[in-house]
Write a structure and sequence with these properties.
about 250 residues; alpha/beta; Rossmann fold; 7-stranded parallel beta sheet; globular; binds NADPH dihydro-nicotinamide-adenine-dinucleotide phosphate; binds 2-hydroxyethylsulfonic acid
Length: about 250
Amino acid sequence: MKRNIFITGASSGIGKAIAYAFGKNGDNLVLCARRLEKLEEIKKDIESKYDVKVDIYKLDVTVYEEVVSVVKEAVNRNIHIDVLINNAGLALGLDKFQDYSISDMEIMLNTNVKGLLYVTREIIPNMISQNSGHIINIGSTAGMYSYANGAVYCATKVAVRFLSDGIRIDTIDKNIKVTTIQPGIVETDFSEVRFYGDKEKAGNVYKGVEALKPEDIADIVLYSANQPKHVQISDITIMATKQATGFNVHRE
Ligand code: NDP
Ligand code: 8X3
């Protein structure tokens, strides 16, 4: 039987690459993001390439009522979610804590932490009742090494790791796996979002260094999800070759 893979933030970057990797692997997909038009293109393309079913939902993970209604609809359509990939996330701004706007802080917390809580809390009862499931949370090296001007984003990614660890403990008597994937520098729209659409500033982040590609992360997520039933990968950290800690990148 084909697995059902539920991916948040599937309209771009790492989430989109994860969708293609699982589609190619023959899994059915439930893709969510706020930009439905992007998901429509991805659905069309994946279904034309691979023999899988792709369901798409417009979902803002920060709105609890939307999360409840999307999960309810998926469950009503008899979709048992085998793998949940909590990928939706963002950084806004790169500033000293004392100069940060409260609004940017709140959007990061609401998306990266509360969004992950809402989606997981709604999907996990189904996994518990079926006594099977895999939750894969996209953390970051930012959750291992704090860096200047990124205190709040880094804190949200520590929270991702600790939520994974806590949920793993609370579901220890079930056949439920919990994995944290912690990427380093990956070239996506992440920096453009962080710098409010400033392409030049965003481009500088990836100048002089060969960053990871979203597909590199997707391969590792798929690897984690394809382990035998008795094997649980708790966490994997992936950096670019010319990267040491989170913001310690060697540029030529
Ligand atoms: P992108 O900006 O390319 O993708 C972010 C995705 O998150 C988009 O699909 C976006 O969809 C979605 N998203 C953002 N806010 C919301 C929301 N409120 N509700 C639903 N979906 C939302 O960046 P990445 O692919 O790089 O980021 C994906 C994840 O990887 C994030 O959690 C990020 O923190 C993490 N990460 C990224 C790294 C990097 O260097 N790029 C390194 C380590 C971790 P839409 O706008 O359509 O809603
Ligand atoms: C995204 C990578 O190093 O910009 O999590 O924080 S970094």
